[in-house]
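pasting for the record
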Amino acid sequence: MKQSNHSKHLIVVGGPTASGKTAFAIRLARHFGAAILSADSRQFYREMNIGTAKPSEEELEQAPHYFVNSRSISEEYSVGDFERDALQILEELFARQDIAVLVGGSGLYIKALCEGLDDFPDVPPAIRDQVEEEYRAKGLKHLQEELARADPDFYEEVDRQNPHRLIRAIAVCRASGQPFSRFRKAARRPRPFTPIYLQLHWPRRELYRRINRRVEQMVAAGLLEEARSLYPERQLTALQTVGYQELFDHFDGSLSRKEAIALIQRNSRRYAKRQLTWYRRDGHWLLLRPDDLALALEYVKAVREEGVSLQYHKEHLAAPARSHEAMEVRMLKNSEIFAAINYSESKREALLEGPFMKQPDIWAGRLLLYQGALLADERKVFAFTALEDELLDELFAVAEPGPEELPDWIASRREVFTEKHPGGRVVGLAWK
């Protein structure tokens, strides 16, 4: 694709499994009159419907879709193939319109399209053959244990039920003598469009309830019958995935029906956790609740018209204690920082320090506090801020906690904050 003036934008709708990405992407596509590209690698295949939570026929009719039902499970289709084909489709779409939508939970496919694939070393066929033979002889657990030792970072992110991806990573580790993840830090490749990253967020416990409920709905819709029809092809790469492998083991007699369903739920929850790890590592997603379409549209407008973007940057703060994670959430305009908050957390509480802005911008301040509150998930949220109540009350109920209500690690930062920012105050935030 040729370089352009970046007037073209790809809205990327991400989020963990069962977070509502399909419905949200369709609402965006209908608003902009845009087409949708799927980056869910399991939805490519015509034979896999129930177990992949594929869009329904009614949903597919609401906007043009690409990469849904586009392949057979018998066809090998790599992430590199997807990158090539998706770039070609975007070139055709952007010749007619300025916006397209990408939706899916496969972080590697999103990265391939928006940033380009990393350059991995060549792996001698003998090494890959050796790893594959070990898998056949010793099973999936052997691959998982080796990858955990060789590359714990990638182990935390990868779909550990997918032997194809484990084999590839282990083969690269053995061939290079270095972790697989080390080759995934290459510079982004120029694209003739600007991605706008939107991530749907649910509190962790509610997300897990949604996952469990969706698996039950899939079973009621005929998941076992679909998996049984695919059982003769169980060795194909496309079927090495959660929702099918567990049922294949059930058909083999190694799991009861009840055990297989419980395992699908557990492995789906673990997959969601790895997806969230991937997104958080990226550091550029706007977090949204699934009903926040209006805020998403405001952000898309700010990106297109003002060059706004988000950046999460890990910070080393003097306090809280080492056990509390800390980061700076930055808002940039044309790559220049103009607003930021510090975010730190403990197991039970989160602290937002800011927002701090070069020039007062109420929208930016509210958006940053909103990001911090979503990062906090189900923790109790405190904020050190100069914003007035009326600027927060669209999203939060605001309370003034007394000194005795502040956790010790937050109280210890209060004096430091007020010295740097006279007039700032501490408030408690709760979702309305």
